[in-house]
Amino acid sequence: MKFSETLIPTLREVPADAVIASHRLMLRAGMLRKLANGLFAYLPLGLRSFRKVERIIREEMDAIGCLEIKPTVVTPGELWKESGRWDTMGESMLRVRNRMSADLVVSPTAEEAVTSIIRDELSSYKQLPLLVYQINTKYRDEIRPRYGVMRGREFTMKDAYSYHQDDASLDNTYQAMGVAYRRIFKRCGLTVIPVKADSGPMGGANSEEFMVESTIGDNTLLLCKACTYAANVEKAGCEPDFSKLSQVNDSSDNMKMEKIPTPQVKTIAELCEFLKTDARSFIKTLIYRAVNVELDLSGAPGCANLKKHRPAPGAPEVYDEAFFAVCTRGDLDVNEVKLAALLKASDVSLAGDADVVRITNAPVGFAGPARLSSVPIIADPAATAMTDAVTGALEADSHFIHVMVGRDWSPWRTADVRVVKAGDLCPVCGGELYEKKGTELGHIFKLGYKYTKTMNVRYLDENGVSQTPIMGTYGIGVDRALASIIEEYHDDAGILWPMTVAPFHVIVIPIKYEDKVKAATDIIADKLERRGIEVLVDDRAERPGVKFNDADLIGIPFRIVVGEKNLPRVEVKLRGEKEAFLAEIPDAVERITAVVREAVRK
Ligand code: ATP
Ligand code: MG
């Protein structure tokens, strides 16, 4: 391929709105152009690498027996109504109407579309397990698209779905996907951190995210210094650390709970100041409102008359809304993702002031678990470990001191609902946890029966009995993977592509594309191409310095410079290395071919 015959509009200037390296370099290297906020067009050079990432993903999916299909991008709204997600996906889902006034959805993901296809084709257990995937356009109306294709509105995702007779079969595929994902990222040159999304050491993993470390990542990861434990903060658990308790007061048995006046004291900081103690002595009590709660609340305090509904036909009944008091130690925060998971709620948020007043009978700031009977109390183990605590007294300007769990209050449920932080203890080995920021590249997830039940997928088992298959879902963002490769492989001058995903393997730069130099250039390019090596010839009538800078910017692994004074030898250099070597053309061709073939070998 000749530079002058393709479209590689490199830029010298750094585009103003591109703040991360991959975004800057994709624009500067002429790989990408912005059409509108969150919408990007790949130009020929960018598309070559994009296709290589796609190809690696495709090969690894094919290798585990996952079958490629191509559903449409625009999907019937009816399917989303069947699953219930028409109501829960919110504004990130792009809905359109056609001329017949039919509701349509531009796919943000494809559980519904694929499940509907499988539903029509599945009849017997003999067809299971069934694994399918697509590499296709997705649209999500992200509130803040940013960092170029890292978080676009339109992007390409490899999404796979699997259907099984039982847990064991689902687990087999889940494990195979985990291995395939590791191979995909390795072949792309990416260093990923697989993060188990199960919360505790005992729970079998049912979700794993593949993260790349990145200062701009929206995920906080907790990793153990002593073992391999790694989890997203949304799910991270920790060992309760009783040594951090400031008050485990054995004499509290004898100290009765006592109400003390705390005028004008509302926040924990003010209370610390007032009582001259620290936040670890307090039980922090927050009132939460949860919607669409699936957890069974029969018998729970204040829950006798809650209204219920069924979000979709076939889906379990849920409570419309319910309120809870959530207790943690004063220095800890409540993890709303864990809380929502515990309650099986579609959303949880802090209750409004009026609800807090109604539930606690006191102004905001004086909630506490002792004598609270209007809502169920959910307590973190850090709170139930406190035997001599300070809490709000359900009355303006008052707190209780010497509050003892079991004697003065009892939780309705004890569960890990706290945000785990750096310095907490690993739930597996007790080692110290530390934090990193990460971006999610891929996700594998045991979905269970959510879609197969609501969408009524059935098959006949060995005994002729009608059954519902269990399902898994597995995604990778192609654009995000590509951008992450550039994040990992660049320097001040430009990109340093790993051979497997480089747009070309070799760039040949003739000092002047004329006469003997032109002839030698054409011979090298031809010999390499015959061996399956991808070559870009910079045939432009530009100064050598300009061509060298562009070659560094677009980051092609091998650079061959052809100049009159060196002929019949040429100068060969790897993008990441300073030193070049001179070689006769046949020798250069052999050596380069061997290196490329070895690097792209599966
Ligand atoms: P995030 O938390 O980053 O929004 P997600 O949890 O919404 O990701 P999934 O629904 O699991 O992502 O989608 C699978 C993959 O699709 C992600 O791992 C990511 O690589 C990619 N992806 C998701 N949203 C975007 C986006 N807006 N732009 C580019 N890639 C995306
Ligand atoms: Mg998202």
- Helix tally equals 15
Straight-line N-to-C gap: 25 Å
Low-pLDDT parts are: 199-203, 244-249
Shape summary: elongated
Verbal overview:
The chain is an alpha+beta fold. The protein is built from 15 helices and 32 strands. The strands form 8 sheets. Strands 3, 7, 8, 9, 10, 11, 12, 22 and 25 form a 9-stranded mixed sheet that branches. α1 packs across α12, α2 packs antiparallel against α6 and α13 packs parallel to α15. It starts with 20 loop residues before the first helix and ends with a helix. About 2% of the residues have low confidence. Bound molecules: adenosine-5'-triphosphate (ATP) and magnesium ion.
Draw up the topology in text.
Elements: H1 21-28, E1 32-36, E2 39-42, H2 44-63, E3 67-68, E4 74-76, H3 77-83, H4 85-88, E5 94-97, E6 103-106, H5 111-121, E7 130-139, E8 154-164, H6 167-187, E9 193-196, E10 207-213, E11 219-224, E12 230-232, E13 258-261, H7 268-275, E14 283-293, E15 308-309, E16 318-329, H8 336-343, E17 347-350, H9 353-360, E18 377-379, H10 381-384, E19 389-392, E20 398-403, E21 413-414, E22 433-448, H11 450-454, E23 459-460, E24 466-467, E25 470-477, H12 478-488, E26 490-491, E27 494-495, E28 506-510, H13 515-530, E29 535-537, H14 544-554, E30 558-562, E31 569-574, E32 581-584, H15 585-600
Parallel strand pairs: 3-7, 16-18, 18-21, 28-29, 28-30
Antiparallel strand pairs: 1-2, 4-6, 5-6, 7-8, 8-25, 9-10, 10-22, 11-12, 11-22, 13-20, 14-16, 14-17, 15-16, 19-20, 22-25, 23-24, 26-27, 30-31, 31-32
